[in-house]
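your task:
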Amino acid sequence: MTITLTHQEDVFPIRGVFRISRGARTESRVVTATLTHGPFRGRGECVPYARYGETVESVRDQIASVAGAIAAGADRQGLQALLPPGAARNAVDCAFWDLEAKRAGRRAWEIVGLPEPTGIVTAFTLSLDSAEAMGAAAAAAKDRPLLKIKLAGEGDLERVAAIRRNAPDAALIVDANEGWTPAMVAPFSEQLAGLGVAMIEQPLPADADAALADLPHPIPLCADESAHTSDDIDRLQGRYDVVNIKLDKTGGLTEALKFAAAIRSANMGVMVGCMLGTSLGMAPAMLAAAGARFVDLDGPLLLAKDRDPGLCYTGSEIAPPSAALWG
């Protein structure tokens, strides 16, 4: 009996508008891959990302391109050579993990050899806006233990100061999404440290981040757009202290677990993040999040509507996914 691969596009509205330094969105367009083997079905989700040259159409074409190989017997390990790292491979890779768990009657973390993913606390993201608006958003989220702040460069110190005033007890991390210049890194780092910021994510464009090796920064720097797979480790060392693993960049959970091990071996910190997707996209990332320094899997909290069933969030704490959702 062969394994069949199908895929579809789904659209989920965002709660309000989500802004970062590169633009704004009001909906999340995801692609869902489904592997069927007899009575068993495995699913995986990805979010095509224009920053990496992806569209929904290109990702759907990539997924369709491996259907024949999978029907002929290609497995999850073989998939790693059939598609490059990115959204398409992520959806199919996670569908393989889900299918394996369903066929074995075991949870995915048992197959990996990990404990059940409990007690995972996610950051809650504040979209880029004026200092006044972000301060008001922080006041509404002030009881969350970890806030992630989207920044853009000019006006960032005022934004973070307003957030700190309105959420005095929350831990803060900031994400510039490549929006700073080298001249901003040292002075912004010093002033953000005074505001209690615990980490700065991707301050410079990925193709200009070599400058970070020579810039003082009292706050740990985290690679995001600069970090895709375990092959990037050597280049990241000396520039960053933390690395953000996203399954849509690594091309799935298989490479994400390998990448996490490589980051730790390099004595760097692990962060596990997400694109703006649903609970189906967050669930496999929870396995990579075991022991991570920071976790940012709040995608469903930012949507107006999630999948059903979805993950259960109690405040910012995520419960393990049900088998009906994934894994």
